[in-house]
Structures are given as structure tokens and as C-alpha cells.
């Protein structure tokens, strides 16, 4: 039996209506919260305490940038944004695993914690879980249909 045809949205189409329900909306909300929180924290740390732990604070700023890009891509929708979100979620997972392992093996290298320290333990391990859930969600969404 033939599968019903799906009308793909143009790559510039907004995904707002599709994100109104289910896991897609929760994913966007969590990424938005992390984007605002990590950005605020890193701006404060970089502007007032950079000399104390420059590596940790720069890594927090990188995490913040990744969260912002993922949030925007999820909200924007479309195939191009979906690809950006996939790449950024993969980069986020690599960052969490790298920084998490680094902070466990060489804790003295980080006088202050980053968002990704100890695999995000200070954030209930959400920095470790979020990219996995994001990658699974994005891979399950049909190509051309946006993220939700």
C-alpha cells in the first residue's frame, strides 16, 4: 500500500504550530532555559571574574552559544534548521563528554565549574541528557517537516 504523501514545508517555514505540543515543545523550552541561564552566567563570569578561571568561563560561553543556536534552530524549523540543530546537538554531546571527562580526570584544571563540568552534574545531568534526547527527536522527525 502506498504511503500518503506529505507536503514538505519550505526550509524557511516557521515550526511554531508544530512545536505547540508534545516533546518538541518541552525540548525547545529546556534549550531556551539553558540558553538564557548559560548566557547570563557566562557574561557575568567573563566580565567580572575572568582571571579566576578563564578556561571554565570560556567553555561556559561556548555552551551558551550552542544552546542559543539549537534553540533558534528548533524554533525556526525547516530542513536547514533541522540540520543545524543536529550538528549542534552532536557538538554539544561531544563537548559534554569531553569537558565532563576532563573535569573528572583533572579537576584542578577547573578552579570553577562550567555548565558541562562532571557531565552537567550541577544541572541534574541535563546537559548530558538534552543532546541525546535532541538527537533522537531530530532523527525521528521527517525530513523537510521541520523539527516538530
List keywords for this structure.
single chain, 148 residues, mainly alpha, 4 helices, globular, disordered C terminus
- What value does the Rg take, in angstroms? 17 Å
* Number of beta-strand segments: 0
Secondary-structure-based class equals: mainly alpha
| Global geometry | globular
Strand content: under 5%
Mind explaining what this structure looks like?
By secondary structure, the protein is mainly alpha-helical. Helices cover 62% and strands 0% of the residues. It has helices at residues 22-48, 54-76, 79-105, 126-140. The longest helix is centred in the N-terminal third of the chain and has 27 residues, at 22-48.
Gist of the model:
With 148 residues, this protein is an all-alpha fold. The protein has four helices and no strands.
SSE order and pairing:
Elements: H1 22-48, H2 54-76, H3 79-105, H4 126-140
Helix pairs in contact: 1-2, 1-4, 2-3, 3-4
